[in-house]
Amino acid sequence: MKEQLVTKKILKWYDLNKRSLPWRKNVSIQKRQYYTLVSEFMLQQTQVATVIPYFNRFINLIPNLKSLAKVKDKKLIKLWEGLGYYSRARNLKKTAQIIFKNFKGKLPDNFEDLISLPGIGNYTASAILSIAFNKPYIPLDGNIERVLKRYLYLKKEKDIKKENLIKKKSIFGTSSRSSDYAQALMELGALVCKPTNPLCHQCPISNKCKSLQKKDFDLTKITKKSIDKYFLLKVYKRDQRYLLIKNTKFNFLKNLSIFPMEELSKPKNFNENLNFKLSNIKMNIKIQYFKNSGRYQASYWIDKKKLDNYMLPSFTKKIVKYLERN
Ligand code: SF4
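That is the input. Now the predicted structure with iron/sulfur cluster docked in place:
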């Protein structure tokens, strides 16, 4: 495979500048595949610096696919606590179980089988194929997208649509070191072509970068419309304890412990007590205290002084803190 100049330059830069990350350790092929799977699930929606301690703890306690397939939900969610988007953890376990059931315990090495697994979409499948299996895929994450948009000076909405970026990424070429190359491009975006103040003087491809030529590094964003939703949050308090339920009703924080809540349709004169942002949903929450404990399935009481003993999403913890302050 003949490498283009741009590919060579990026790989050379990567060899000299890559960060030492726990999932990049020199390990056996099987471990590498497992590390890639776990880290890619964790890195969906979460920054590298936040993921590192979670990854280390996870790998220590759940060291391989087999232990992941058998892990107790309680332990799994506890290890994920604070990372948010808990469906990732549940999908990760389901994926491990399906791998044992349908793929003889081996992480699939082709796109179709990978995207059939829970929690694995086009991006994660490409990342696994390139990083774990050294196949010539370039996973288009936020970092690579930014390098591409700046390098080619893509500013118009139609130019920055996913389908167009997927076509355009071919300018990066391919390498026989596909695993390193995918990570090199991500690393270039993370360390050099940063969202604000890109470090162009350190960039291996600066000589042909159109944004640098134009001295315009602003990125056009397609903003997701924020949706307002209104909720009545019911607080049942007994002594020092609050009543929580397992959420089987709402699509967010599915199966996690929340206060009993009801969604209200566009109420008049809604005076919310607090707001919470979940993805593009702005949750307007009105809090109301109730005397009787109500009738809820899968409900239980938590002691406000022992919050750390429970597996609670940060959403619920924030509400407890708010209640204690007010
Ligand atoms: S020269 Fe600057 S703007 Fe262009 S790709 Fe490199 S870091 Fe990004």
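The pocket of iron/sulfur cluster is lined by residues 147, 150-151, 192-193, 198, 200, 203, 205-206, 209, 211-212, 217 (CB under 6 Å).
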